[in-house]
UniProtKB/TrEMBL annotation:
<feature type="transmembrane region" description="Helical">
    <location>
        <begin position="170"/>
        <end position="188"/>
    </location>
</feature>
<keyword id="KW-1133">Transmembrane helix</keyword>
<feature type="transmembrane region" description="Helical">
    <location>
        <begin position="250"/>
        <end position="273"/>
    </location>
</feature>
<feature type="transmembrane region" description="Helical">
    <location>
        <begin position="142"/>
        <end position="164"/>
    </location>
</feature>
<protein>
    <submittedName>
        <fullName>Glycosyltransferase</fullName>
    </submittedName>
</protein>
<feature type="transmembrane region" description="Helical">
    <location>
        <begin position="86"/>
        <end position="106"/>
    </location>
</feature>
<feature type="transmembrane region" description="Helical">
    <location>
        <begin position="293"/>
        <end position="315"/>
    </location>
</feature>
<keyword id="KW-0472">Membrane</keyword>
<dbReference type="GO" id="GO:0016740">
    <property type="term" value="F:transferase activity"/>
</dbReference>
<keyword id="KW-0812">Transmembrane</keyword>
<keyword id="KW-0808">Transferase</keyword>
<feature type="transmembrane region" description="Helical">
    <location>
        <begin position="58"/>
        <end position="79"/>
    </location>
</feature>
<feature type="transmembrane region" description="Helical">
    <location>
        <begin position="219"/>
        <end position="238"/>
    </location>
</feature>
């Protein structure tokens, strides 16, 4: 189901984003949130960094292999959880439904080495460990999930439910205490202030949907529709189960997974992977009550997955081609090691140009609040998180880019709509080339002093 992951180096911008972060961390003096900024916890960037130190420019290819291993681990852990509760048939159903369901998204979401993919093994492990009354370890696994993706940390609630039912207050304190200790240790390692700002409190503007409710609703319904289309057999099987006992934690898990998908109100397709583990366990519970293996749901899941895998084989590479063309011209116009600035949303240009970013902010979205599923009503410098423009200016003063790539191509964050950045660009750079709609600006050394301030 996931062998197409090896058909291309980068499936989506998220992969390139974390790979560029790893490259910057490997060659820089400083830690996560200092050299690179992100709205995500630090665990997956740390894994990418480790792989980059071992594999260099083959980082993303290696991460694709690890993503495949993560899917397999999740399937096996869910199978073990189902088998422990309801027997071997339930375990087989859970594992198979996860494998086919995990391929049932847009190829850019299903085949990518995304945050969700690496969070789900810890999510499944947390529930399995709680089932086996290893509540401290379950809390630790839930913390690993949360440190990979904030929304995945919601698995702590079903873990606490299981701990309370099995061991009362002692179980809850054991699981909750270890969870808090692990998250607290990670926050201390990268810096308390930066951790809480970027992981929790600095995302208010990013999640605001003022003026875009219609777009948000359409994206949410569209993503849910694709998930249901791919997993209809599992969903119907779960709904056909008439037994009500022994599933309270699973329904709670499903509720927190839905909440996790909805948290940012951006509804990217890969978010919906969070729904899959509780759905397949609910389906496995239903399968255990039947006299025969439920071949129809399994057959439907396999058929749907085959369609999505076939899509991956022919999926167009339009964005890849654009980024490759721009990166090629960047390499031609700059020396190795020369810093560049890409004013856009796609860090693939950084990755393929093999040039370091001049700033810790790898997309213009940090400075403008632009993001998927939003219109121009809340895009602009005044909607950026507090302190971002100050840090952006400090980065550019410390490391003025030799080349600026305006990759906005008419988007709401185009330089002529962001006065502060537009003045910076005009003061220190001149346009030298247009590549597939992107404008390359070369630095004018005589104007470097004027260009150093974003005013």
């Amino acid at each position: 189901m996931h062998l197409p992951v090896f058909l291309r180096e980068v499936w989506n911008a998220d992969e390139a984003f974390v790979a560029v972060q790893a490259r910057a961390l490997d060659g820089g003096a400083g830690g996560f949130y200092e050299i690179v900024a992100d709205r995500k916890p630090p665990l997956l960037p740390a894994l990418y960094l480790l792989v980059h130190q071992l594999a260099g420019n083959a980082t993303v290819w290696v991460m694709h292999g690890l993503a495949l291993a993560a899917h397999l681990a999740t399937a096996l852990l869910l199978a073990a959880a189902a088998r422990g509760r309801w027997g071997g048939r339930a375990g087989l159903v859970a594992g198979l439904l996860y494998v086919v369901g995990s391929a049932g998204l847009s190829p850019e979401d299903a085949q990518a080495a995304n945050f969700e993919v690496f969070a789900l093994p810890a999510v499944a492990a947390a529930v399995l460990l709680a089932d086996r009354r290893r509540f401290a370890a379950a809390g630790g696994a839930a913390a690993v999930a949360a440190l990979t993706l904030q929304a995945a940390g919601g698995v702590l609630l079903p873990v606490l439910w299981l701990a309370w039912r099995a061991a009362g207050r002692r179980g809850v304190l054991s699981a909750g205490g270890v969870f808090l200790a692990v998250v607290g240790a990670a926050a201390a390692r990268v810096g308390w202030a930066d951790f809480w700002f970027w992981v929790v409190f600095g995302n208010g503007g990013y999640t605001n949907v003022s003026g875009a409710w219609d777009r948000v609703a359409l994206r949410g319904l569209g993503g849910l529709g694709i998930f249901l289309l791919a997993n209809l057999g599992a969903v119907l099987l779960a709904g056909a189960d008439r037994a009500r006992r022994g599933r309270g934690d699973l329904w709670l898990w499903l509720v927190v997974a839905v909440a996790g998908v909805c948290t940012s109100l951006h509804f990217f397709g890969h978010y919906f992977l969070l729904l899959l583990p509780p759905v397949v366990l609910l389906a496995a519970r239903a399968a255990a009550t039947r006299p025969r293996l439920p071949l129809a749901p399994l057959g439907y899941g396999l058929t749907a997955a085959a369609v999505f895998v076939a899509l991956a084989l022919v999926w167009p590479a339009g964005k890849d081609r654009h980024a490759e063309l721009v990166a090629e011209r960047v390499r031609a116009r700059t020396e190795p090691g020369a810093a560049i600035l890409v004013w856009g949303m796609d860090p693939r240009i950084y990755w393929w140009s093999r040039r370091p970013a001049a700033t810790r902010f790898l997309s213009a979205g940090f400075m403008t609040n632009f993001g998927g599923g939003r219109d121009a009503s809340r895009v602009g410098e005044r909607f950026a998180p507090e302190g971002v423009w100050r840090d952006f200016e400090a980065d550019l003063r410390r490391r003025p880019p030799a080349l600026v790539v305006d990759d906005s191509r008419g988007a709401p964050y185009a330089p002529d709509r962001i006065g502060r950045f537009h003045r910076y660009l005009l003061a220190g750079y001149r346009p030298v080339e247009v590549v597939d709609g992107s404008v390359l600006y070369a630095r004018q050394p005589a104007a470097a002093g004027a260009a150093a301030r974003l005013r």
